[in-house]
Design brief:
Blueprint lengths: L5 H5 L5 H26 L1 H14 L6 H17 L7 H27 L10 H24 L1 H4 L13 H21 L5 H17 L8 H18 L26
């Protein structure tokens, strides 16, 4: 099961070209949705306007320091999700983020590079596809049932769904249904076709609803993190006061909140 390319097996019933066109359409939807989100919400305009205002009243930051800030942003804020102070949230986020990247990249490689059994798929690719999908499931379901603030702090049901949950729910649905489909396909189960259809629907929702979900925030966060570090370096801090020596403690003094 872990050494079988599910998309190569699928080529017996669906032409590889159809699968490849579908993947290209999903990529276009993400790009178009992100651009629409930027224009509609004015995110880029706000970012660059704020950047220009801060530069006019800022201290000079040389090129070497900017390079150092860029490296820190990439390593700490992007690769290590350093914005999360809570260790559980950080681990869950990293599992989901890296699992999603591994799952998507191996999907694209297998669909375009090894679309049929004629070109044997290296065993490492299906294995990574499964590992990436399972990482998404572990991180995503852990977050959904045990880490969300409205569940752990406010006592709401984990099955309470809001508009902001569109991204995480469609992501979990897509990956979970994809893994179930691949498992059933290797077993020759007749139910594999049903789960494949559901997998396509969930994946289309995931990549086709970028303007209405939190999908695009993964592209904004690195820029925002970089701007924040630069504002601290040049002394502007976006007009906000510096951090206090003893930050305010939220919640009851007897019981520390778990989600901050």
């Amino acid at each position: 099961m872990f050494a079988t390319n599910p998309f190569a097996e699928l080529s017996a019933s669906i032409a590889p070209a159809v699968m490849q066109v579908y993947v290209v359409i999903m990529i276009v939807l993400v790009a178009a949705g992100t651009l629409f989100d930027i224009v509609h919400k004015g995110s880029a305009k706000y970012f660059f306007d704020n950047w220009r205002r801060s530069r006019r009243k800022a201290q000079q930051v040389d090129g070497g320091e900017l390079l150092s800030i860029a490296v820190q942003t990439a390593v700490v804020d992007v690769l290590a999700s350093g914005e999360f102070c809570n260790a559980r949230r950080r681990v869950a986020h990293l599992l989901t983020m890296y699992g999603f990247l591994i799952h998507v990249i191996t999907t694209v490689v297998m669909v375009f590079g090894y679309p049929t059994p004629v070109a044997p798929t290296p065993d490492i690719l299906p294995l990574l596809w499964w590992i990436g999908g399972l990482m998404v499931c572990v991180g995503g379901y852990w977050f959904w049932f045990f880490i969300r603030a409205d569940v752990t702090a406010e006592g709401n049901s984990p099955f309470r769904v809001m508009h902001a949950d569109l991204f995480i729910l469609s992501l979990l649905a897509s990956v979970t249904l994809g893994l179930i489909w691949a498992f059933l396909q290797t077993r020759g189960s007749s139910g594999a076709n049903v789960f494949f259809g559901l997998y396509v629907i969930a994946t289309t929702v995931l990549f086709g609803t970028v303007p209405w979900s939190k999908f695009a925030h993964m592209f904004f966060k690195p820029a925002a993190a970089f701007e924040k570090r630069v504002s601290y370096a040049n002394g502007t801090r976006s007009g906000l006061p510096g951090p206090a020596d003893k930050p305010e403690t939220f919640g009851s003094a007897r019981e520390q909140p778990r989600h901050y």
